[in-house]
Amino acid sequence: MREGRPVWIKCRRRGAAPIVACANSFFRLAGNPVRALAQPDVWQRWEVDCFLSLHGDGYRAFADGVRRVAADEVPGVNLTCHLDGGTITPPMLATAAQELRRAHSQYCADFGGLWSHGDPHVGNFIYDAASGRARLIDFEVMHHPAMPAEERHADDLLVFIQDMVGRISRDLWMPSAMAFLKAYGEQRIIDLLRARLVIPRGLARVWWAVRTTYLAPRELESRIAELRAAI
Ligand SMILES: Nc1ncnc2c1ncn2[C@@H]1O[C@H](COP(=O)(O)OP(=O)(O)O)[C@@H](O)[C@H]1O
Ligand SMILES: [Mg+2]
Predict the structure, then answer these.
(1) Which end of the chain is more exposed for a tag (fewer CB within 10 A), N or C?
(2) Structure pTM?
(3) What is the percent of the chain where pLDDT is above 70?
(4) CB-facing half-sphere around the CA of 192: CA atoms within 13 A
């Protein structure tokens, strides 16, 4: 609790810098176009700025000491609860897509262009059934600013799709993926996503395996091919 309101507090442990550096080296080698922010003050500023620019109309976020960030609790449940519980529905996925599109339409000075998240997996959306909307949280990483906004946006779509494909039943996969993309709606970005729906080799394949929750390779290939064809 802070000033009588429930908050979530994230903490950067002492000694985290080498772990962050290691993660960033892996991301570079595996072709993941983001970096985790190693310096605590830089990370705090990014988390707070992103949270406020998306949710600052009703919720607060602030640096809490030198190693913590506090953010007001936003209403709802982590969308992963519905995905892993088998209760996810196309309308829920549409709210996540609408939230991502809203976020992608915001200007960000750090990018000198439109904002992107870098890690919008399903668990980074809080879905509120009462209001029928989802909110994006967790601003721990940042896309490389040199990447064009459209490429960053396509990468965000890919992250969500990769997370979903590995945790959903076969029969729900295509209706869910299509509901998500239809609600996102930007065909130019979806075309760029299509180009990314190719399972790579080498270290990049290892990262795909992590991202897709180690779904069996044949099943993964068939699901991704089906989505590519449908797009
Ligand atoms: N502002 C918030 N409102 C509601 N739930 C939150 C909030 N911040 C974090 N959480 C919960 O805590 C979990 C972990 O927080 P997150 O910011 O995603 O950090 P991590 O980097 O550990 O994934 C989230 O998935 C969500 O369930
Ligand atoms: Mg998270």
Answers:
(1) N
(2) 0.98
(3) 100
(4) 15
Specify if 77 maps to a domain: yes
What are 8's strand-pairing partners?
71
Whole-number Cα distances in Å, 142 to 42, 109, 147, 154, 175: 11, 13, 11, 14, 30
| Amino acid type, 37 | L
Domain assignment of residue 2, yes or no: no
**Structural domain range at position 12:** 7-230
Q: 64-121, pLDDT tens digit by residue?
A: 999 999 999 999 999 999 999 999 999 999 999 999 999 999 999 999 999 999 999 9
Q: Is residue 145 part of a domain?
A: yes
Please give the tally of structural domains in the chain. 1
The answer to whether the CB of 74 is under 6 A from ligand 1 is yes
Does the CB atom of residue 54 touch ligand 1 within 6 A? no
Distance 74 CA to ligand 1 centre (A): 10
Out of 138, 140, 142, give the residue to mutate to test ligand 1, the one with the largest number of ligand atoms within 8 Å of its CB.
138
Alpha-carbon gap, residue 140 to 123, rounded angstroms: 13
Residue 210 resides in a domain: yes
